[in-house]
Amino acid sequence: MTATERFFCADAARTHGDPLAGTAPHGSVWILIEYRGGWPPNGFDGLHLEPDTKRLLFSAAQAVRARVLLIRRHGRHSLEGTRRWAVLRYESSGAYRQQWGTWSRDEDLAEIVGALGAPGELGRPPVVLVCAHGQHDTCCAVRGRPAGRALSERWPDLVWECTHVGGDRFAANVVVAPDGVYYGGLDARSSVATVEEHLADRIHAEYLRGYTDLFPPQQAAVAAVLERFGAAGRHDYAVIGTSRDGDHWRVRITGRPPRPTVVDVEVRSHRAPPRQLTCRGLSMSSAVVYEVTSIRVG
Q: What span, in angstroms and rounded, lies between the C-alpha atoms of 208 and 183?
């Protein structure tokens, strides 16, 4: 690359063949805050909100390890009027819970703290989040916004653009919550096809980064099982055991019929050579890669 060429991390990731599986951040609680103005590079942390309310919300989010995302509908919208917030939670039982509210003054956001301690509602449709945070990383805008537009045209009530979700080089990134499923490497066409399959409870391995209730080697193992045996529902496979020996993991997965009852997956981790991983981050970093070395049906 010459000095005049611009670096795009998503293009570089595709050139290097960076694997998607095993790259979803761990977590099961999301706080969404509709904010139609410009998003600071660091998202919620950079907002100029009433200080006491912001501290209260930040502390409550930290206590439950919630990810706080700013959201907005695709396209141009008035900055005025009532905005929405939500608390989305994925429970260990597999239940999906949501609590929604509205805010017009900064102080109204304190209601989120109470929602974090409430059970939330079952049965709501999932939320489709598309990272389009151009102030954080250029590829999130260049690749995220076309995907956001296509998804919004197909499911206008489900889809929101959002701030940074992690893994800039995998743009366009789509998160389905509270399902806790990360997809990456998408474009306008593949994002619609992928979400359509997801909503029909058919998760494919092709663009899957991972399930956020699992840790990276477990995510890689589940993705490998999906690739080997075909698409499956979010709860058709379950991780029931994980053991580690240095940089090797053995992950045991059970499946619902007609899928394999027990599958043992061997995973090895290693560090890729250092290189620039984001558009704005000029320092060289070395990403951890999780490679599946064997799959055995029990």
A: 5
| Residues in contact with 54: Cβ distance below 8 Å, sequence separation at least 6, in sequence order | 47, 106
Q: What is the pLDDT of residue 4?
A: 53
Across the chain, what does the average pLDDT equal?
94
pTM comes to: 0.94
- Domain segments of the chain as ranges: 9-214
Alpha helices by DSSP H, the chain: 9-16, 51-63, 111-116, 138-142, 144-154, 188-199, 216-229
Measure Cα distances from 192 to 63, 72, 140, 146, 156 in Å. Answer: 35, 19, 17, 11, 12
What phi-psi label fits residue 176: left (phi over 0), alpha (psi between -120 and 50 degrees) or beta?
beta
As a CATH number, domain 9-214 is 3.40.30.10
pLDDT per position as a tens digit, 150-187? 999 999 999 999 999 999 999 999 999 999 999 999 99
144-154 vs 188-199: helix crossing angle, rounded to 10: 50
Q: How far apart are CA 25 and CA 238, in angstroms?
A: 18
User: Average pLDDT in the 201-222 region?
Assistant: 98
Q: How many CA atoms lie within 13 A of 203 on its CB side?
A: 23
